[in-house]
């Protein structure tokens, strides 16, 4: 390859950013780019995190919002139960789980409702 030819890049399917051909995750948005990102133990955690971020930041349909409510609603319920158990470890886990789940529920619902309002304004 000569110096004037550009290096081959892999485009992210989520945001379109150019990435190194050997990259497992997008440098811009963190989307998984390779199959290894879904099967490696730590990489799988990052890939799942990307899915949760996409669901909370850009919920595309009501079913996504309902899914987040089921997952994190149960987490909030368990957090409340843990807060009232009396065991120090359970109280600490509940003190962590409750705010995290409530933030995810609030953020996802707010972003979905704001998206609906923007879509309605653009239709007019």
The count of helical stretches stands at: 4
Helical residues, percent = 55-70%
Mean pLDDT: 86
- Overall 3D form: flat
- Strand % is under 5%
* Sheet with most strands: strand arrangement: 1-2
Outline the biggest β-sheet. 2 strands, antiparallel
N-to-C SSE string, H for helix and E for strand: EEHHHH
Give an overview in words.
The chain has 124 residues and is mainly alpha-helical. It is built from four helices and two strands. The chain has two domains: 1-57, no CATH class; 59-124. A two-stranded antiparallel sheet has the order 1-2. Strand 1 (10-11) and strand 2 (18-19) form a beta hairpin. The longest helix is centred in the last third of the chain and has 36 residues, at 88-123. The chain is flat. The mean pLDDT is 86.
Key phrases:
124 residues, mainly alpha, two-stranded antiparallel ribbon, 4 helices, 64% helix, flat
Task: Reconstruct the topology from this structure.
Layout: E1 10-11, E2 18-19, H1 36-39, H2 41-57, H3 62-83, H4 88-123
Antiparallel strand pairs: 1-2
Helix pairs in contact: 3-4
Provide a quick synopsis of the model.
The protein is mainly alpha-helical. It contains 4 helices and 2 strands.
């Amino acid at each position: 390859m000569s110096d004037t030819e550009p290096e081959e890049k892999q485009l992210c399917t989520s945001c379109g950013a150019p990435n190194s051909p050997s990259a497992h995750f997008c440098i811009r948005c963190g989307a998984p780019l390779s199959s290894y990102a879904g099967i490696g133990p730590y990489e799988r955690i990052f890939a799942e995190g990307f899915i949760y971020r996409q669901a909370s930041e850009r919920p595309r349909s009501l079913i996504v919002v309902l899914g987040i409510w089921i997952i994190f609603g149960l987490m909030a319920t368990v957090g409340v139960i843990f807060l009232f158990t009396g065991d120090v470890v359970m109280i600490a886990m509940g003190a962590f789980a409750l705010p995290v789940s409530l933030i995810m529920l609030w953020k996802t619902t707010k972003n979905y409702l704001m998206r609906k309002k923007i879509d309605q304004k653009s239709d007019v």
